[in-house]
Please model this.
Amino acid sequence: MIRRHFVFSALTASVAADAVAQSGADLGAQGAVQDRPDWATFFSKADAQGTIAVLDARSKTDAMFAYDPQRAARRYTPASTFKIAHSLFSLDAGVLRDEFQVIPWDGIKRPTEAWNHDQTLRSAMRNSTVWVYERFAQQLGNQKEAAYMTKIGYGNAATGGSKPFWVEGDLAISATEQIAFLRRLYANKLPFQVSHQRLVKDVMINEAGRDWILRAKTGWSGKIGWWVGWVESVEWPQGPGFFALNIDTPNRLADLAKREDITRSILRSISALPPA
Model:
């Protein structure tokens, strides 16, 4: 099943990559973000405070929408959404060979049971296994991490503060910047091997149907919850629907399901995600 998804990804990306690239990797070239105050209903229904940015690349004229555009432009810690970029850095540096490499568990028991085993790239992404990426960070070093982030324009590219720097430290990125990064990844336009970009996209698969795929990653800092990614379909040869949501999580674990619930509802409201 995963292999079918991987082939489907390559086919859809090859059809749409040129169209996505021609419209510009920098979202700033698209003009003003269109405010969607009507999306407040979805946040109110979930009793959540936050923002969502959506880039609809399904037509020739891309449209960038946001609920609370000011917050969409504000930077927050990316938390585990950074694992997307971090995986690319690790593959490029040779710290990680491929999706089959076994990353040995250190034997330390952690609260999440799925973390207490050997990991691969796929399981570490699926389970959001923090210790795996802390090990990658140690092997890469702050200087190389910062250089990679600067190279791709990832947020403020900061590695200072408490560790891990992408959860407790100084790294910060906005919802609109998340989409700019994801857009380049979708089109294989980041400065990394195409095979590495395709691999990372493959392990981002959350859900798929006969002719569509949802690729995404959650993140949670304890205070801010994220869900970022895109939905692609063979019915949308021009490009996918990109999204980046962040919300406050004052109720901590009780708020985490709201990330996907709100996003899915908004995407379905614009026919960018199949019905449940």
About this structure: DSSP finds ten helices and seven strands in the chain. The beta strands are 34-35, 50-56, 63-67, 205-208, 212-220, 224-233, 241-248. The domain at 77-170 is CATH 3.40.710.10 (Beta-lactamase). Confidence is low (pLDDT under 50) at residues 1-15, 18-30.
